[in-house]
């Protein structure tokens, strides 16, 4: 499989790139700095230099051309509103347009559980982040692509456990980025999964089994 990851230098995107590469997939991605090219090349990951915030859809389409699937795992993580708008909002819309222009039919978005942190006083910037993420989810579902939205619960560092709870609706808890990346890698390799929103939490079901259970 030829996969293009927008957010390949991020925590989930980087883990996903390594897992896909280990499976023998061709992995490409977008980086903002030339210095990052050599580091990722040592992992067998082919990257292109470009800033998602400033690239237009035509330029991005040229970069993703030839891919079988685009994975969008970039995000502002609730930072300044302008960054959230540029990455989580406009960035997703731009990537959707680029996919159509380049003829890439599959598109996977790493989103967020709407219930995340709702027990807290989040502040204006983070509330804006959740609103923009919701708008991006809607844009993806209204596209004519073969889309997938994965909404993980609160992300943790550390080694994954290899078991999850995956389905159309899950409780909000916490899960390692490693298990998120492993689940997404498995989902991408399952042709029976598409045009679905899936939520992901810590659980007791082995990842491969959990993925098979949500096939159409």
UniProtKB/TrEMBL annotation:
Domain NAD(P)-binding as annotated: residue spans: 7-191
Pfam families cross-referenced by the UniProt entry: NAD_binding_10
PANTHER family: FLAVIN REDUCTASE-RELATED, UPF0659 PROTEIN YMR090W
Record protein name field: NAD-dependent epimerase/dehydratase
Lineage: Bacteria, Pseudomonadati, Pseudomonadota, Gammaproteobacteria, Oceanospirillales
